[in-house]
Design goal:
Strand order of the largest sheet: 4-3-2-1-5
CATH architecture: Roll
Number of strands: 5
Distance between the termini: 9 Å
Order of helices and strands: EHEEEHE
CATH superfamily: Ferrous iron transport protein A (FeoA)
Oligomer: single chain
Radius of gyration: 11 Å
Structural class: alpha+beta
Strand content: 35-45%
Shape: globular
CATH topology: SH3 type barrels
């Protein structure tokens, strides 16, 4: 299951972030790594991006990136 499969308001724990290079470094620097509890704040109108919340961070990611963040409930 990925972050993009969650419904608005749901929370899950990050199991794996399937990203590389600068993308991986950015997500890790913001605190999105294995073990982080993340919740979906909202989706864009046509579900092309998602607004994630974890800790004090609010992060908007494209759908392609959200589909690479594996989670478990």
């Amino acid at each position: 299951m990925t972050v993009f499969d969650l419904k608005k308001g749901e929370e899950a724990e990050v199991v794996k972030v399937n990203a590389a290079g600068a993308e991986s470094a950015r997500l890790s620097a913001l605190g999105l790594k294995t073990g982080t509890h993340v919740h979906i704040l909202s989706y864009s109108l046509f579900k092309s991006s998602a607004l994630l919340g974890f800790g004090a961070v609010r992060l908007s990611v494209r759908a392609s990136i959200a589909r690479r963040i594996e989670v478990k409930r």
